[in-house]
Amino acid sequence: MSPDLLGSLVNGAIPFFAGLYCWLLGTRRIGKAAGMDVEYDAWHERFGKACRLLGPLAMMFGVLTVLVELTRDR
Question: What is the pTM of this model?
Fold first, then answer.
């Protein structure tokens, strides 16, 4: 595996996993359950919808980054 290929995989993996974490946080699959912490509930009420929207977008961006780098002429 060439260093360029490894670098492009890492460059795509970073936004993919950040988006996955953001989406999991927005859907409350990770983090505190509803009703356990008032401050966290307020945070989730404010930013949860954005996390549910931006998480998959970041994941798609990461996948597209890898695909573009794999198909680019070297």
Answer: 0.87
Q: How many domains does the chain have?
A: 1
**Residue 30, CA distances (Å) to 11, 33, 70 in order:** 24, 8, 32
Provide the residue range defining the domain that includes 11: 3-71
Q: How many whole angstroms separate alpha carbon 40 and alpha carbon 28?
A: 11
Residue 40's pLDDT band, with cuts at 50, 70 and 90, is: very high
List Cα–Cα distances, 16 to 25, 34, 64, in angstroms: 14, 26, 10
**Contact between 52 and 27 (Cβ < 8 Å):** yes
